[in-house]
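User: Fold this one for me? It's Solute-binding protein family 5 domain-containing protein.
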Amino acid sequence: MTQDETFLRRSGMTRRQFNLMFSGAVAGSVVLPTLVKPAYAQPTQFNEAPMLAERVAAGELPPVAERLPPNPVVVTPTNEIGTYGGRMFGAGRAPETANDLQIGQVAGLFRYSNDLNEIYPELAEGYQFNDDFTECTITLRPGIKWSDGEPFTVDDIVFYFEDWQYDSDLLPVPSATLMAGGELFSLEKLDDHTIKFGFAVPHPAFSIIHFSGGPSEPFRPAHYLRQFHPKYNPDAAAEATAAGFNSWQTRFTNRANSAGGSFHNGASNIDMPVLSPWIPTSVDSQRQQYERNPYFFKVDTEGNQLPYVDYMTVEYASNAEVMNLKAVSGELSVAGMDIQLSNFPIIRRGEETGNYKTKLVYSERGSDVCLAFNQIHPDPVLSKLFTDVRFRQAMSLGINRTEINELVFLGQGTIRQATVNESASFFEPRWAEHYVAYDPDAANALLDEIGLSERNADGVRLREDGVPLTFQLEFLPHEGPKTEVCELVVKHWQALGIQVQAAARERSYLIERLDAQQQDATAWHADRLLERPAYAYGLIGKMGPGGDSIVRYGKLWQDWFNSGGERGTEPPQEAKDLRAAYVAWQETEFGSDAYMAAAKQVYDLTTETLWVIGTVGQSPQPVIVRNDMGNVFRDGDETRFWWGAANWFWHTLSPEQWYIKA
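Assistant: Here's what I get for Solute-binding protein family 5 domain-containing protein.
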């Protein structure tokens, strides 16, 4: 029986359904990102949800026409005009992580097509670079209001940069995403709705334009947050202490929802105004609650203010099994971020009783589970091993990716290293194939060569100091089969004579260890690797020098880079070369000959260093949509749908126009 036939038997699918779900050519030609301004006739009158009409009648809200901007964003519903009302239900793994329903909360300056080839105006009406890409002017949509009715203006962007991101008391080491040529972006307010950014070098990869996962939110409500900053409130420090915080900085970042750089990454500050479709109204240890934003700036083609749905509830699931049980029992309106392909046969069989349908989308990740070793380890012996590329090559050769693909991904993933998605115009197959073949003999020979030839009575290799070689592989058990893959990798590495323990961690605890460079090895995923985000995020992404998120293997290198050498640890020449290659790439215009050459230099270097080791990537991903949900996917559309942080999961499906069928 073939691999495909086995999959068909498990899932109960016909051959035609299988071919449709797994079809879709992968493009290889470059398409320049384009700002698209749809030409819609503005509705002549506006309608609102009954729950808001009641508040207007009671004098609690102004009429809908006064709450909307003069030129609201007009959304064409995916299938039909929706109806108002109801509550969507979702689930998340923990209060500190994003979840399926929060994905729809992001209101960025721009929105993107699923393949990221098109940019659409949102909070901003447009942008314009100068001829040499050293300046970019962004024009905001006039008349947009925060959820408390206060105007959204350039002042909210200036506050975000000058009083937060550029304030050394809050962020001693600024983010590389806000730099070009080693210097912070300059900004100039031209008027309430126009701002100009300046760059020390040509910067066509400007993060605010290209960041798609999630769409860039370089603003905060200045009228609310100024009360927590001593620049505007001399008593901010004393008030922070009285409120139970150890500093004004801690209170400010807490109130600003700083985790993940987004408003919408885990439990939110319910007091802070938002621009999103829904407002967070309560947060506790069990759930998050939301209700519609009366000032949301979008309408459908008939003038109905969005969103259609009144309320959202997100409950926490203690583990992946509970998450999947909630989904197949029909409790969740949509589910996908923590649904695993290994459960696909069960999910398909449960569609009728659970009253939902399943759709397969496709991971944009270069590797759905990848691994990285701490490159600045405090143990000198482990540091010597982990920084030797031969050790990393051996560990890669020692992973049986075919077994991982069969057992965890039902044979439908792609065995590959952590590298750019194969749809990229400059993709080279050799990057994905580098040291991915399972070859334990070659792995053992490399380990012997670097001084690990001696073993104890249990067969465990001995370090140069005579101590058995043992370390931990730490991971977050979220967003995919991290647990299952890590357990298999540990088995493979133990067969090489290395004692490894897989350890699932809580996010904040593991981030603290990574920031302090206390980890041995970690596992997460390598995402944002479709072409546009690989270009825009690359320097600060998982494949950039030092890594990112849970595969941040060189945080102190990044501190050194971002502080001009005043902080952190000086990186090796390979890391400096990789950073220089990314910087050079981001100074080239998307799609140009120079761009293509620079991109290949970047991925040649990431391939050679092997700081991030891939397993299986670009796998199909089941998502669940309950049958009472309308306008989620286009009826009858079998186009390949990319899924991941690159295009922010559900976000390109415009969740504000989803509705609950009667």
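One thing worth pointing out: Residues 1-11, 13-31 have pLDDT under 50 and may be disordered.
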